[in-house]
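[Q] Does anyone have a clean structure-token version of this?
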Amino acid sequence: MRWRDRYGLRRLRGPKIAKFDREANDADIEALIAFAKSRRGVEFYVEPETFATDTTAVAVADDGEWTRRRVGSPAVISKIARGLALPVYDVQLTGYPPRMRAYNERRKREES
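[A] Here you go.
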């Protein structure tokens, strides 16, 4: 059985793998795509790889709802975003959008 590199995870990530984390897989990318297709105004924010965590992307919808998934490298999420015609930002340069924090606060109030 041959493994398909459907989203370029292996080819685009390079030789580095975070020490304590699992690798990104197709299910991670498909979850981000499903989130983006089912919500309005989605933007992707790329988080850098750390010693313990692989490169991740946070998809943030117009209402502030968000999800985070491993992507392997910034090139992978850039390729996906181009295909979906959605913007990609480097979270180290732009920070997270305020609507994300507002969404978290609303959820916290609703759970209390």
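[Q] Thanks! Anything notable?
[A] The chain has five helices and four strands.
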